[in-house]
Fold:
Amino acid sequence: MLAIENLRVVYHDVISVLNGISLEVKEGEILIIIGANGAGKTTLLRSVAGMIDFYDGDIIEGDIKMEGSSIKGLDAADIMKRYGLTYVMEDRPVFWYLTIEENLGAASFSRWDKHVKTDMEEVYEYFAVLRSLRNKRAGYASGGEQQMLAIGMALMTKPKILLLDEPSLGLAPLITEELFSIIKKLNESGITIVLVEQNANAALNIGIRGYVIETGRIVLDGKAGELLENEDVREFYLGSGEKERKSYMDAKRYKRRKRWL
Amino acid sequence: MIDLIQTLGSGILVGLVYALLGLCIVIIFKASEAFNFAIGEFLILGSFLFYVLFFNESLPWHRALPLGVLIFLFFSYVLFFDIDLNFLIAVPLGIAAGLLIFCFLFFGLKLPSLITSPLIRFMIALPLGLLAAGIVGSMVERLTIKPLLGRSPISMTIVSLGLGFFLRGCIQLIWGSHSYSFFLDLPDITIEIGDLLYLSDPIWAGILSLLTFGLVIVFLFRTRWGLAIRATSEDQSKAMAFGINARFILMIVWAISALCIAVAGIMISNFGALQVGMSYVGLRAIPVVLIGGMDSIGGALVGGIIVGICEALAGSYIEPMGLVGFKEVAPYLLLLIVLFIRPYGLFGTVRIERV
Structure:
């Protein structure tokens, strides 16, 4: 469905963030992308969604294809309208000074049809909390409610493929669990999902396939279950290895890093 | 006592026009966090566009033709790149628009000879003039502000400063710097109760400004487009991510702003005569928005009325004591006091803090 081929992205003409990344998203799956801070996960999503220009970044090599046709260089609004690709930015991208209902309305701006009201009801079905808060400003809602609203807003754009950038950022474990079960439900209703996460355990549990990226390259890929079992992923992203806990005497003074390639 | 009521009343009427000026600054500031210093030039430009339509002023061909070509280029550009029309449709439409503008400017609209009633003439010329002002506003945005989207708002502010000088030069080239007599001849609605006397022109100015203000608010708070504008004002990147074309929205905001400035400009010209040097009136918007709060629409209304009253009071109570010209300074003194007490203005946004 979505294919990224050897993508290289540079910020401000000098900071190279993605160094030839290639990946593929199949229709109807939940794809998990995990990686450390600064690995280029957000940059990847921004380039796919057509928003890289806004952050003064450039795609200097490679191509992004959606259903076979290139979407490189298209405007964000165009990509959304033509290909049904919606990007939910990190850190709860809701409009703080608009009410929750207005937020949902603003998100449906790109479509001109009369089904907005029924779609709104559908969103309230998924996220029951939002219904009771509909006339409250989104800025006063809690973190979990804001994240649910952000996903609800993405649903208002009628996406075929949804890119989620760290939806669990700053949320309590229970809320995260609820959120992920909703994401799974959305996937079952036919939306392809690309999920970028720091919370690797929770994400890999709902995912079908997963990629690990580091310094702008894919370093590991496989079934989500396999990644969960993988020794290195367990040590670096899940915080537990098979090995015995080391004595602090053996701990080296520099931070341990692993080179994948 | 009668004196005071008289002064307050005329202060409020002028204040409503100032409120409209403030609104233009506020909506641009909300949308792009830039201060539009070219407001004075937009003001006279809008008045001149209206003047051309209303008073049957025609231009020689060497002034009309470049404007026609400019309109053609701009329309083709917007239709082709922003609205995504086919090239073969976009270019002829652009040519049509350019030709239309050229004919208007070169031959004149001949409205005065066609329609004798000034009110009907006014009601035809006003929308057309405002439309023209809106187009000029969006054109300016396309050429100068759009390339700066995503950059620091300071650069947009500086660009608007230069834009002001550029526009003033253009206006002087096209229409010269002598003054044009400007008399709308609207129906007389002078109010006279006992010793109170309110002249017709300020009342018309107040009514039309309030009407425009109301229409803009209805547009912003009751329509889909308004919702998109408010969303974009809050955060351009978020709006883009949810499929709102932030660049197009910014252009619309500039168009609305230019249109409102034109209404204010026409009303202010109607008090006296129209000439390029009048652009300093636009700077009266600075105390208005700073007193009201840079990002508050209601603040612009209150700020405008406060400035109007302050000016009127200074004019009728302090100037007779021998301080000629104090009227012009009084709003700035008031601004100083307000900023000492409330640095964000009276109605500056209460920032949302989550607890």
User: Anything to note?
Assistant: The CA atoms of residues 9 and 59 of chain A lie 5 Å apart.
